[in-house]
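Human: I would love a firmer grasp of how sequence relates to backbone shape in proteins. Take your time, and here it is.
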Amino acid sequence: MRTALLQSSGQLGSVAENLKALDDAAGRAAAAGAGLLVAPELYLTGYAIGDDVARLAEAADGASAAALAETAARHGVAIAYGYPERDGERVFNSVQLIGPDGERLANYRKTHLFGCFERDSFTPGEQTVVQAELGGLRIGLMICYDVEFPENVRAHALAGTDLLLVPTAQMHPFQFVAESVVPVRAFENQMYVAYVNRVGKEGEFEFVGLSTLAGPDGVARVRAGREEQLVFADADPAFLAASREANPYLRDRRPGLYASLV
């Protein structure tokens, strides 16, 4: 499945403008033959929004979800996007996947919150593995810091995730995560990993870009630079099946030896 990675920070604090940008990106993705568009962490609102998190947070089935359902259906492209999710008095750092027919397929709440801003603004999610079926692949959802915990990604591998979507807000000086950690996660867990970042300065943060789609062989299929870009790469089920047959990591595990880790 051709996957479009939208490396962009959008317009800080403007949900309306970011919805327009997603509509434009979905059109370009469809024209390039992509079946899936992935946007960064908190793309709908911007990341460095401070106390506006509570004001801008929406329900998973709120107005923005409805607008993006219409966008996805009109272009025939699935869309995964980061946003602050309101559920009663709680606010989560979430990513939602909408199918190419406009159906809401999955919603994931970030389980590992990074830094003071996130811990002060969000409630951590409690469900590690969230998946959906799309284009013959089992899609998994995760957000930024989550992928830096090996147990998280291994849980997805054991649950059969084929393509792990990781909207992110990766900032300086941690670019080694995009450059090194993500390809290793893809290799050691035998899956594709789409890591889609923000870019440029935003408040006190400097996002490093370097969005990538890494394959189960640990090789980046595409690597964005440090500017706003829409880049494309393919997740190939046949290559994934062959790689899993050749790579023994998951078959050679000895879970009984690891009990002390948890």
In short: The CA atoms of residues 138 and 160 lie 7 Å apart. Residues 15-31 form the longest helix (17 residues). The mean pLDDT is 97. The first strand starts at residue 2 and ends at 7.
